[in-house]
Amino acid sequence: MPKNVDIKRAKILEVAKKRFAHFGMAKTTMAEIAKDLSFSKALLYYYFPDKHSLYTAVLEYVINEMINKVDAYVAKASSLEKAILFAIESRMELMRENYNLFEYSTSLFMQDPSEMGKSLGPFFDRVRDQFSRILAIGVKNGEIVVDNLDETAELLLFSLMGMRTGILSKDLNDCLFPTPDEFELILAKQKKMISIFLRGLKPSVLSSQDVS
After folding, report:
1. HTH tetR-type domain spans which residues (predicted)?
2. In angstroms, what is the C-alpha Rg of the chain?
3. Hey, what CATH topology would domain 58-203 get?
4. What is the pLDDT of residues 120-144, one digit of tens each?
5. What's the rounded Cα separation, in Å, for the pair 16 and 25?
6. What are the domain boundaries of the chain?
7. pTM of the entire structure?
């Protein structure tokens, strides 16, 4: 029975993800999702008591997909920089593909930061932990030197987020989520920042004067 429940739940999340990503949260109803699934509304509400709980579960679902995709790549990556660049490219691709989904989460955060923070906080922690694992590989390979992996991963993630916010707010607009045309600009800036960040973590090479 539990296995059947998991299959049905996964099917609901996949169908709801397509609805939310295409039409947005406001223009999607539970009745439409149930119809897409050929489920009764009662069965859908059995799994998710309201649209907000389903929306939060879909957010978790798509972020888990991204994390698993990046983990699979990192396990075979030839360098730390390639692994991190793949991670930020994957995050940007995820937001582009699910634009309406993530745009709504931003508007919810602006309306009620504390409530939305409860939902998004664990997602941030998971991405930070992934960056920490990626940095650990770089340390193991001798590519970088890091005293505190979690702290450095958090600093890196904050830097990426802050750069995005800075680019979006430089014209004093109120939008904290990129327009489709802004994704490439943000990604290009983030890639440059990653290069600078990693150069600062590379092992120092003693000069001949230092050795003497």
Report:
1. 6-66
2. 20
3. Tetracycline Repressor; domain 2 (1.10.357)
4. 667 788 889 999 999 999 999 999 9
5. 10
6. 58-203
7. 0.79
